Amino acid sequence: MPGFTHDGHKTQKIHPAVKKKLSFAPKSRRGMTVCIDHGWQKRGFDSLTGHTFMMSKENKVLKTVIKHRTCGVCKWWRRNRTGLKVREHRCVWNHKGSARAMESEAGLKAIKDMIQQGTPVEIIEGDGDNTLVARLQKNMGVTVKKKLDRNHCIKNIVKLLYDLRNRKEVSLSNQVIQHLHKCIKYIFSKNKGDVDGMRENLKALIPHQFGEHSNCHARFCGYKRVGNSAKYSHRSLPYKAPLSDPLLREKLTLLFEPIIAKSAMYVDLGSSQACEYANRAAMLKAPKHLHYGESESLDFRIHATAASINVGRKYLSEAFSKSGLSPGHFNMKFSSKVDEDRKKKREKMRLPETKRRRLILKQERATQKDAFEASEGSTYQSEVGLGAEADIEKVPDPITKPTFSAVQKLKNMKPTFIVFDLETTGLIRQGAMPHITQIGAVEMESGDSFSTYVLPKIPIEPGAEQTTGIVCDGTSVYANGSKVVAVPIRDAVSNFLTWLSTFRNNGVIIIAHNGRVFDFRVLSYAVERIGLQKQFLENVSGFTDSLSLIRSKHKKLEKYTQIYLAKHFCKESYSAHDAVEDVKMLSKILSIAVCKSDLSKSAYDAETHFLQEKFSAAKALYLPSLSALVGNGVLKMNMAENVAGSGLGLHHLKIIHKRAGEDGLRNVFCAKNSHGKPRVTNDCKVLDTVIPKLCHFFSQ
């Protein structure tokens, strides 16, 4: 007699003929290859519900099995109607065991259903963390072949390596683990179906990292192919040299012994990634933080997930039509669009460049995370708040080095060119900036101009007074003996930005003669000091230094001063060192000497000088502390300047080395700053030279 399950479905016994047929040797069968994986609705192994997806190699869901350890109606009735018979209902309670047993039992039920429908299963692909194959053999007399999931196998091995790294007595860096990870994937890929080759290559893996190549094959070992130890280097290992720690070799050899013993299991691996994708899709419809398992709501959500995977979003319209409802015009239209987008996304995800980009981003995130942890010290760990002397000193945030790169956003725009000049209280001396006494600017095409005098807060140098004719008595400003209206620097810059805002729709490029060395630096310094950097960058896209541009276009001129250029190109003289007259004449010179496309191509980003001042200040602050490293040959002066300019002093390097060692220094040097550039450098050759010297210096 057939029995009944808790969900009201009949259970059927396997027909003896079918059972006899399935007991034949695997070679005589023609069964399906499927992948099976189970998911729980609660993290850990105390979940009240779980679901299993059985999928074909074409990534279609063949079976879904949902397991419930409780029923909402039964629970309510027992709690509120004690002693009374539970009313008749569609009970979902169909599992009485532990949550761990769900995976095997659900897989067993899925296989039974397939057999009863006349479709035997020959090969099961999935992880090796359940007893499904043994239960099939014992309970049904069915022998199937189990293929382990390739990703799970590799992750399990790499997890052992990270566990080994966490032991204090072993020195194993992330770079070595990543190299071994790559080697393991290569061995698994190139030895499919070759048990002897798999075993031999796994045996040779660890000795190879320590410079012993007697067991290596030329197909996998560059040393054997080169045939000369002087020419061969380990490209992915630290410092491109073999490992040398005998304790590390002993531990790695012991770790790989059971892996080598299971070589036969690794020659024929499968994939259950389709089921992993289905489980992630199920989480969208049945999130783990919500409990749907006491009713059929969970069943509907899991079945809806399977339908969306098999037929796409149109399953909704088809379900409505079969139920006698309107499929919905807008629903069908939206479903078609979603399915098309999903198809394009899947095709893109299969491309090699997409996979490569995904791996690069993953590596960048890992580097960034480790760099943050090495820079921040103790932030979150068990009982960290109980210690009176927690390591909480934070390494300064990275400072971006200015690169004077081209302005990308101007490629498809026709920018507005503003010729600009400053008069100041003097020159830049030992990094000290002068104060502005006059701002002059003119728009090249329309001739619209701007001019204002500024009341400086420091005295004007005698040489500047003689050159510009501008004098200040502390309260008033005089130009060539006449009193002029002068405003504070904040008002002057604000008025200048208001004037520039009338042109910003096309992107504004400010041009000055020798501006890269003087005018742009002084203006940027003043803008930052008064707190108008954001407004400035909203109105100005870039800077162009006319001196550098004219020098590159006209290489044989006698001089490149503005006075000489005015005589050479315009055949005129003018009242120099007056900001307004200077910009008007420079506008004439540029209209003759260069074309506007050159002005645009020569522009660099307007933020550059703000970065330059921060970088220079950090370098002046931290470079003296690095003199010991330069003196001992650990760093060259150029490298020391980059390290100091990024905000790192000797004290910070010591802290990073103490917290995270070699990996910490490497990750902090490579970590990207706010502009997407490495803090110091990501050049492997430079890092392989500098990092070991730093570690040796600090260990002394």
Assign a percent range to the helix content.
40-55%
Q: Indicate the multimeric state.
A: single chain
Largest sheet, spatial ordering of strands: 12-8-7-6-13-14-15
Number of helices: 28
What's the architecture of the largest domain, going by CATH?
2-Layer Sandwich
Q: Report the span from N to C terminus.
A: 82 Å
Sheet having the most strands? 7 strands, mixed
Supply the number of structural domains: 4
**What is the CATH domain class of the largest domain?**
Alpha Beta
Poorly predicted ranges: 1-29
Rg over CA atoms:
37 Å
Question: What's the pLDDT, averaged over the residues?
Answer: 88
Instruction: Classify the secondary structure makeup into a structural class.
Output: alpha/beta
Task: Tell me how many strands there are.
Answer: 15
Protein architecture, described:
The protein has 700 residues and is an alpha/beta fold. The chain folds into four domains: 16-149 and 272-311, Nucleotidyltransferase, domain 5; 151-266; 360-380 and 387-400 and 614-699, no CATH class; 408-605, Ribonuclease H-like superfamily/Ribonuclease H (Nucleotidyltransferase, domain 5, 2-Layer Sandwich). The protein has 28 helices and 15 strands. The strands form three sheets. A seven-stranded mixed beta sheet has the order 12-8-7-6-13-14-15, with helices on both faces. A five-stranded mixed beta sheet has the order 3-2-1-4-5, sandwiched between helices. The protein has a three-stranded antiparallel beta sheet with strand order 9-10-11. A hairpin with an 8-residue loop joins strand 1 (32-40) and strand 2 (49-56). It is elongated. The chain starts with 15 loop residues before the first helix and ends with a helix.
